[in-house]
Amino acid sequence: xxxxxxxxxxxxxxxxxxxxxxxxxxxxxxxxxxxxxxxxxxxxxxxxxxxxxxxxxxxxxxxxxxxxxxxxxxxxxxxxxxxxxxxxxxxxxxxxxxxxxxxxxxxxxxxxxxxxxxxxxxxxxxxxxxxxxxxxxxxxxxxxxxxxxxxxxxxxxxxxxxxxxxxxxxxxxxxxxxxxxxxxxxxxxxxxxxxxxxxxxxxxxxxxxxxxxxxxxxxxxxxxxxxxxxxxxxxxxxxxxxxxxxxxxxxxxxxxxxxxxxxxxxxxxxxxxxxxxxxxxxxxxxxxxxxxxxxxxxxxxxxxxxxxxxxxxxxxxxxxxxxxxxxxxxxxxxxxxxxxxx
Length: 342
Description:
The protein is α/β, with parallel strands linked by helices. Helix content is 60%, strand content 9%. It has helices spanning 4-12, 27-38, 43-49, 60-68, 100-108, 130-138, 149-162, 169-178, 183-196, 205-211, 216-228, 232-244, 249-271, 276-283, 287-297, 302-321, 326-341, and strands spanning 19-23, 50-54, 77-82, 114-120, 140-143, 166-167, 202-203. The chain is globular. One of its GO terms (molecular function) is DNA-directed DNA polymerase activity.
């Protein structure tokens, strides 16, 4: 398995492999690889020598037939296969049936003038499948898993520097917090920040605070902190605000439960000597979320986390089983939780 940086350099040097498997969920880097490959083809040749096949809409046979074709008005072809769900354990309800034997036969004898690129936006593939085993053996596999926080920071700073921009340290922190240090989410927010900062070429804390909205999950993360610190009035105020924003009580409660479950899991694994990276891979959670959870667990006892989690499960049962006022239930939860410490 090779890195995204390595494959980008190879493509730039025109050192193309017959078959690539781009495996992982990082959309930004997958798009970078795609655009770098397309740049090898003059625009007038792309219509004839570049094919893109979505496996949820088109059969695999069509893509393989295109890959086996000789170039037209050029000396090479480029074929993309996207969303190859049949390589995973996922059961998709689609009308298209795919014969993976055709892919296996192609991998045994790939067309020398074609570069076949399989864009698999999944955390993992089904290793039991013959086609997956063959791909791992015969294709160049590119690790396109989500970047960790350090890599995301570096990518943001490098991209901004290349465009002639700077960003305040506090602004970068807020941007990372509000995007969960997810490069794809960062990429969707940066264009409006660049536009707003085009005069000064500097992205400020004020700009990020104003223009990058907080998600429900991030508001709930703040609510977790207020609950644990027994700040009842502020917790009730934030809960009321979320309801006023038409957020569903069950959804708010489910995210709260998930946050406390994560805190408990992180706390237990930390006590067993697990480091941040090990915890993230064990729980299959983004490392940045684990980092924030680790910060919180330094200040609160496991008993508090457990009491809050069980209390939220009780709220969920009441919300599903009765028509009681959600705000009243949350008030009772805060009252019980606060009294337990006393």
